[in-house]
Write a structure and sequence with these properties.
Number of domains of chain A: 2
Number of helices of chain A: 11
Strand content of chain A: 25-35%
Number of domains of chain B: 2
Order of helices and strands of chain B: HHEHEHEHEHHEHHHHHHHHH
Oligomer: heterodimer
Distance between the termini of chain A: 44 Å
Number of strands of chain B: 5
Order of helices and strands of chain A: EEEHEEHEHHHEHEHEEHEHEEHEH
Structural class of chain B: alpha/beta
Number of strands of chain A: 14
Strand order of the largest sheet of chain A: 6-7-8-3-9-10
Helix content of chain A: 25-40%
């Protein structure tokens, strides 16, 4: 490993001013972030926000237009080979060979990484994955949950130090998701750094730290507590009749940044607490509505961040 | 029941998709025109100006006239002057010349004395079409041209002054299968090998496996060699099968070395696989890869000397022909099987195949994108 400063030993990923555009459209804009070793770092944001592009830049699959960065101390522009050897990347779409069996796929990966005994490595991985008895089944015939498990197994086979997971649990049932996250935490406990992109709020809450990215711009990052605190969001929960027409009335008012239905109640939030209070003052006096101050959820924060970034974008 | 609006919906969708696929669109319009012009002008079944080597044992006015007369027939074009019979044989085996004309020692004296000496004309009959017309025209034309040119005494003019002794080499009975079967070996190999590898990279891209492959520590050259190697073996088995059938069913001889034939066939197989692989790195999807292979396959059949005499094509078409692996391989196969050619006879064609293979491989490795940019 290159001789870094001692402080950087604890840093797995560090990027600064990363920018990437496709056909004149900026997909990632001036992105800077740091991930400490052994962390599970959640990467959140709406579709098309640049999550996949960022992950691909980190593992050498895309070259950034500008900016610099390193993964595990290797320069992401110039040290592609080292990065490919030490970084595991799990693609969003299943990308192992559908017409190879589980065993054959794992053996292929083991050989490409030059592991000493590919057959045994594959067999050990099958045991770890709980796929004993199905090793000769074609990968294409597996269900979504098993495919994702196999893909993760293939990724960690060469024992990477950094794992990049691109929406690993999309289309996977809750039980399989839970098991998957158990596995991720086990890996992190063993010292692996994991960068995982997701849409799911409950998954964000399983991460040590998160970053929220929208329209290619990193809007917030830190622990969940930090992100919620930093948002300075005042949130009310309203319940009562005909909440839908209430939400329509509230949405256009100055100071109201977010109105979102949550089951039988409505979450109303604003970054400027005083402005929000002025806007909702009239409605608070209505006897049929019950207002209460609530702790903003991560989702409230994200929805309001998205609204804000859209404003900035225009 | 056919519902017109549903059919129309499908039709409009197909048109829109077709318009998006630029390459398919241009192949439909551009390629037919190019190919029509290319082949229309290139193919000639009564070839003239065929390459001829001469071996002259005595040099004088008469022998010069004979050679000039030969050239005047417009069928023969003297491209080589041989110094020995061995040299002439080498040129014929290598396919450099189609005819070898030998004027023996004492030729002029024989003519003057009315002995009717023999003018030896050896023809490469491994391609009967190319040799046939020229040989048929040879007899009469040389005689009359010679008389006009030289003004020999009347007495000699009434009877032919010399005898033309024709020798159809390599396929004296002009059996078509002896000409076609070795060429077919090359044609079949070209077709199957191209398709094998033309799909290999596009398949990975279309199935989405390329993304994870590229994130692993494997280099473009390693991917290429790994993808080509298994098909070399398959191609070799295919070639062996065709050769066994050629010998058993069509009685095609193998005059030369079987080892040399195997070696150069393997080289030819690898060359085609490399070209197919190159297409695979250029094409955006499997359909385009197949189209490119086919567009490459057609000139291979028509301009390589497989269907039509190579020597009969105009110069520019011969240049294109030289760029096609099948042209060289057909010379190699006919050379080894029918003429007993050695590596020395065929070293230029062997080198050309190796050169084309390296060119294709270099292009493929350079074209291969290691990122998704």
């Amino acid at each position: 490993m290159p001789a870094d400063e001692a402080a950087d030993e604890a840093i797995a990923v560090e990027v600064e001013g990363l920018t990437k555009s496709f056909g004149g459209k900026v997909v990632v804009r001036d992105l800077s972030m740091r991930v400490r070793r052994g962390q599970i770092y959640g990467f959140l944001g709406p579709n098309g926000s640049g999550k996949t592009t960022t992950l691909r830049m980190l593992c050498g699959l895309l070259t950034p237009d500008s900016g610099r960065g390193s993964a595990l101390g290797y320069d992401i522009r110039t040290q592609n080979e080292e990065i490919k050897r030490h970084v595991g990347y799990m693609t969003q779409r299943f990308s192992l060979y559908q017409d190879l069996s589980i065993q054959e796929n794992l053996e292929f990966v083991a050989r490409v990484y030059g592991l000493a005994n590919p057959v045994r490595e594959a067999r050990d991985a099958i045991e770890r994955l709980g796929l004993v008895g199905r090793e000769h089944q074609l990968a294409g015939e597996l269900s979504g949950g098993w495919k994702q498990r196999l893909a993760l197994g293939a990724c960690i086979l060469p024992t990477p130090e950094l794992l990049l997971l691109d929406e690993p649990t999309a289309g996977v049932d809750p039980k399989a998701r839970r098991e998957f996250w158990g596995e991720i935490h086990k890996l992190a406990a063993q010292g692996m750094t994991v960068l995982v992109s997701t849409h799911y709020m409950d998954e964000a809450e399983r991460c040590h730290e998160i970053a929220y990215i929208a329209y290619g711009v990193l809007l917030a990052h830190g622990t969940i507590h930090d992100v919620i605190q930093q948002s300075h969001l005042r949130t009310y929960s309203v319940s009562g009749p005909d909440l839908y027409s209430l939400s329509e009335k509230l949405l256009g008012l100055p100071g109201v940044d977010m109105v979102a239905p949550f089951g039988n109640s409505l979450h109303v939030a604003g970054r400027d607490g005083e402005a929000l209070d002025r806007a909702v003052a009239d409605f608070r006096n209505r006897p049929d509505l019950h207002w209460s101050v609530s702790q903003p959820s991560l989702e409230d924060v994200f929805i309001s961040l998205m609204g804000k970034s859209r404003d900035n974008f225009q | 029941m056919i519902d017109l609006s549903r059919t129309l919906a499908m039709l409009i969708k197909e048109f829109v998709q077709l318009r998006r696929d630029r390459l398919t669109f241009s192949t439909m319009i551009f390629i037919p025109v190019v190919q029509l012009l290319l082949f229309g002008y290139a193919i000639n079944t009564t070839p003239r100006h065929l390459p001829t080597a001469v071996l002259v044992h005595e040099e004088n006015d008469l022998t010069r006239s004979v050679l000039a007369a030969l050239g005047n027939t417009s069928y023969f074009s003297v491209t080589r002057i041989a110094r020995s019979e061995a040299e002439m044989d080498h040129w014929m085996r290598s396919g450099e010349v189609l005819f070898g004309v030998e004027i023996p020692a004492g030729f002029e004296r024989g003519v003057r004395r009315g002995d009717r000496p023999a003018l030896l004309v050896a023809a490469d009959a491994s391609d009967p079409v190319a040799a046939g017309t020229a040989l048929a025209a040879l007899e009469g034309i040389v005689q009359t041209a010679l008389v006009r040119d030289r003004g020999l005494p009347e007495s000699i003019q009434s009877v032919p002054a010399f005898e033309i002794r024709q020798h159809r080499r390599y396929n004296p009975a002009a059996v078509t299968s002896l000409n076609i079967v070795p060429g077919l070996l090359g044609t079949i190999l070209t077709m199957t090998m191209l398709i094998f590898t033309a799909l290999s990279v596009t398949r990975e891209i279309e199935r989405g496996t390329m993304e994870s492959l590229l994130s692993m520590p494997i280099r473009p050259l390693e991917i290429m060699l790994g993808k080509i190697a298994p098909y070399v073996l398959i191609g070799f088995l295919q070639a062996a099968l065709i050769l066994v059938l050629a010998v058993l069913l069509f009685r095609v001889p193998i005059e030369g070395s079987v080892l040399l034939l195997s070696g150069l066939s393997t080289l030819f197989i690898a060359t085609n696989l490399s070209i197919g692989y190159t297409f695979s790195t250029i094409a955006q999807n499997q359909l385009q890869a197949v189209q490119m292979s086919f567009m490459f396959f057609l000139p291979n059949i028509l301009l390589s000397g497989f269907m039509f005499p190579y020597a009969g094509m105009p110069g520019w078409a011969q240049v294109i022909g030289e760029l096609l692996p099948l042209t060289h391989y057909i010379r190699i196969v006919r050379g080894i099987m029918l003429k007993g050619a050695s590596l020395y006879d065929l070293h230029i064609d062997a080198a050309a195949l190796a050169g084309l293979m390296l060119l294709a491989m270099t292009l493929a490795v350079r074209r291969f994108r290691t990122t998704l940019d």
